[in-house]
Amino acid sequence: MQAYLKQVNAALLAATGGAFGKLLQHNHPLLLKAARQCGGSSSSGGGGSSGSSSVSALTPVVTKALSGGDFANYAVVVAGVVVAVVGGSSGRAVDAFEAQRSAFGAFVRLFQADSGRWLLDALHSLSTDLRICAERADVAIAAAAAGNGDVNERNKWECLEAAARELNKVFQSTVTDRAAASVSKKWGALDVTNSLFRVYFRLNNLRLCKNPIRAIESDGLKSFKEKYPLSQLVTYNFFKGRLSMFDNDFESAASELLFAFENCSSKYKKNKKLILLYLVPVQLRLGRFPPKALLEKYDLSDKYSKIAAAIRLGKLDDFTAALAAHHEFFLRNGVYLILEQLRTLVYRNLFRAVHTVVGGTKLQLSFLQISLSWLGSDIDLDEIECLVANLIYKGYIKGYLSHSHRTLVLSKNTPFPRIGQ
After folding, report:
1. Residue 155 pLDDT class (50, 70, 90 cuts)
2. What's the per-residue H, E or C state across 227-273?
3. Phi, psi angles (nearest 5°) of residue 401
4. Contact (Cβ atoms closer than 8 angstroms) between residue 420 and residue 286
């Protein structure tokens, strides 16, 4: 315990934000060792006490160890982190969250009062572990309730929502800081935004993402945005791209997700695969087909190769089968609905293939009905007329319908424009 506190004290005395931030990370070796020692000592408050009371009990011990400066307020932060690790390692997830929340609240007050940006690394560490502790606490509470047969109306993500409120407080402190750019807390705004994104996506409350986006894209942060660390920009564009996808703004989604994919380090293959998981459906929606080698490299060939081939060739039966084969996977990752929308492109390419065979500018709907029947889709002419009308409305076909003659009259010039034009 003393070895850990000695390192914390040295970092505070030298005001080395990087070292202080690392010491607050739950996986830091010295912190883990201090937590084990604290957990074995009932006198330090690490026994069976709740998170908040344990922090109060440990704070005087930490305060005594932090000497050489006015670090009494930092003692609450350090004590809270130690108790949070104790709670997490002993299976008391709710206590861990309460302790981490106490630490974060005390830190926010210090952060708001301090001038300069040296505490941004500590903010990152505390924000990350606050979110993780909140998720684990909510899972533990839900599991305990289910085990006791308690089916109440409690909010499923109560702790995570509390974490979001804490993060919002510090976010406001970053975006409203008026210090000079070199020492501004605005350098921490994007990192907190990314933490909020993770929370809001977990809560499935995506509309709340709009507020931090407006702040980041505002004139006040424009000069900072281009200079944020690339890793933070990758994360920001990943989440923003997914939001654009859900808003059916596919051009923006493609640009943002492509930025994230191209700038994500190749050593993080898992992250690049995750980005590609969303980028591929967006690109398909714009008529851009992924290279087979790319899908194979990131183990997504089994998920997307057959879908892409079915779209390209207009094979409705293959598309339906490929979508059904990985239905649960697509649904779990939030891309099923956008993939289902691609069915429209399958119809478009199928009808183009029929036109290529039949020729001319007048295409009887009965020909389309026959082609669909061959592919296992028996629908009447009224439904086919609706399908064609929708394709014309979306710009996938240039022409008009003659209802009385049950005929599609196609434009002489590019009756099937390129997708995305």
Report:
1. low
2. CCCHHHHHHHHHHHHHHHHHCCCHHHHHHHHHHHHHHCCCCCHHHHH
3. -100, 135
4. yes
SS3 88: helix
pLDDT higher than threshold 50 for residue 42: no
Task: Tell me the per-residue pLDDT of 278-310, one tens digit each, with 9 for 90 and over.
Answer: 999 999 999 999 999 999 999 999 999 999 999
Question: CB within 8 A of 392, min separation 6: which ones?
Answer: 398, 399, 400, 401
Dist. CA 124–CA 24, nearest whole Å: 10
What are 402's strand-pairing partners? 407
Torsion of CA 46, 47, 50, 55, to 10 degrees: -20
Q: Which of 33, 24, 86, 32 is nearest to 58 (CA)?
A: 86
pLDDT digits (tens, 9 = 90+) for 340-388: 999 999 999 999 999 999 988 999 999 999 999 888 888 899 999 999 9
Q: Which amino acid is at 72?
A: A
Would you state the structure tokens that stand for residue 183, as one six-digit string? 């020492």
* Amino acid letter, residue 102: S
Token pair recorded at residue 370: 């026959």
44 has a pLDDT exceeding 80: no
Residue 190: DSSP 8-state: H
N residues, the chain: 421
CA angle, residues 163, 81, 7, in degrees to nearest 5: 140
Tokens of 319: 């598309």
Place of tokens 């990752």: 333
Distance of CA 397 to the CA centre of its chain: 36
Tokens 């929708």 belong to which residue?
390
Instruction: Give Cα 197 to chain centroid, integer Å.
Output: 6
Distance CA 64, CA 44 (A): 13
Q: Which phi and psi angles does 25 have, rounded to 5°?
A: -75, 135
Reading the block at residue 333, the tokens are 């990752």
Q: In what order do the strands lie in the sheet with 407-410?
A: 362-364, 407-410, 399-402
Q: What is the C-alpha to C-alpha distance for residues 358 and 114, in angstroms, rounded to an integer?
A: 75
How large is the angle between the packed helices 316-325 and 343-358, nearest 10 degrees?
160
